[in-house]
Structures are given as structure tokens and as C-alpha cells.
Amino acid sequence: MALSVSAAYLPPANTSLTPSDQKLVAQPLTDAAKEALANAAPAAVYHPSGSASTTLEPLEVVDVWVGRTQSPDHPRLVEISNSAFNTLKASFKAFESALSATAPDLAGKKYGFTVEADGRLKVLDSAGQLSSSDTKRLTELLNQSLGLKTAAVAYRNAAIDTVDADSVWSGLGFYSLTNENFAKTLDLAPLLRDHDPSDIKGAKDRTFIQQLHYKGEQATQATEAAMYERRGIQRFSAQA
């Protein structure tokens, strides 16, 4: 068949259709048509799989704890902690110097100390060199040294502030440090004593981070909530 294409304009046809006077009348089915309809079968049969179910499973709500990010206050609190540490180190050296003069038998023994929840200093016999009498005398002498005691409490508070202000997932905020668990976590003496760098014995106790790593309590959503409750309205600006 040949098609002819022309650019000439063709006007639309205006053909009018005349309505028919013929009425449509429904015709009854013949006997043959009725029999064919009665015997008709479906063109396709759907068989659902055994695993198919129209029952919707209830939605499971998963509560994911994200944890805090590092606070903008963190660098400032680190400076405060470093300053408190330097003050504590100077106070501890003065205490050990006085101990060598007043109680040389105690000064020659290895001991540690920490800060309890109530602010008192506690002697730690980590090396097993102290008798009960030695522990009692050292405890009294440590707590009688007001300069050392004040410096130790100030450092504890600054260290807790630094941990609280750090990130849960990329910083010290991974741990929960409080007044209550500080004594179980940190021995301050190894942090303050001078050591020969080549002496690797006891190296894991010589830094704050290492002690926190192997003795610290891991933070959870509950400990973070308790931290915020403890601080009250003093939440870090990162969480405001």
C-alpha cells in the first residue's frame, strides 16, 4: 500500500451522525450456549505458595543508643585536668620527700593511693609490700597532708569532667568514671612517680588512659543518663 504525505492543510471532517430508530432487544440464550456456559472452565488457576501469608507481622521497635559526641568544652577541661595533675605531682613529690625524713621504713616500700567517694585518700598495696600496720600509718599520713589531699580531689574531679565531656565512640567517654568507681579504677601513685623509660614492668599503670582501659567501667546508655542527672542543668553544650 502506498502512502502519500502532503504538507497541505486538511480541514477536519464535520460529519454528523444520525441517531438510529432501531431499539436493542436482549435475545435469550440458545440451549447450546447455555450448555457451553455451564461447562466453561477457568483460563488459569492460582495456587498460592505455602509460605505466603496475608497476616502482617507486628513491627519491632529497636532502640539504638547513639551516645554523646565530644563537647566543645572538652579542650578547656583537658587543660584544667593537666594543670590539676601537675599540682598533684608536685604535692606528691613533697609528701614523699617528707616521708623519707619522718618514716624512712615506709618510704622504702612500694605503695599506691587513690581517692574514695568521700574524698579521703586510700592506700593501695598493689605490690604486696605493706603490713596492716604500714597501711594504717600511710593512710593517716596521706590524709594529714592537706595539700596532697586537696590536690588529689581536685585532680579526680577534673579527670571525671574530662571523661564526661569526651565522645562515647571515639574518646574517653567510652568509659564511665564517677566518684564511686574512681578508687577501683585509678591508682594515682604510678602516674606521679618518675620512671626509667626502659623499665617496662608496670608500664600499663603509668598513664591515665591505660589504667582506664583495663580497669575502667564501660559506659552504657544508663550510665550516660545517670551522668546527665548527676550534672543537672550543667549539661555540656554539645547536648543542649
Walk me through the structure.
With about 240 residues, this protein is mainly alpha-helical. The chain contains 9 helices and 4 strands, in the order αααββααβαααβα. The strands form 2 sheets. Strands 1-2 form a two-stranded antiparallel ribbon. It has a two-stranded antiparallel ribbon with strand order 3-4. The mean pLDDT is about 85.
How large, in whole angstroms, is the Cα Rg?
A: 42 Å
Number of continuous helical runs: 9
What distance separates the N and C termini? 81 Å
Q: Encode the helix/strand succession as letters.
A: HHHEEHHEHHHEH
In terms of structural class, how would the helical and strand content be classed?
mainly alpha
Low-confidence stretches: none
Main beta sheet strand tally, sense and closure: 2 strands, antiparallel
Global shape? rod-shaped
Strand order of the largest sheet: 1-2
TL;DR of this structure?
By secondary structure, this protein is mainly α.
Protein traits:
two-stranded antiparallel ribbon; mainly alpha; 240 residues; single chain
Write the layout of secondary structure elements.
Blueprint: H1 31-38, H2 74-102, H3 104-107, E1 112-115, E2 121-124, H4 132-144, H5 146-165, E3 175-176, H6 182-185, H7 188-192, H8 208-215, E4 217-218, H9 221-231
Antiparallel strand pairs: 1-2, 3-4
Helix pairs in contact: 2-5
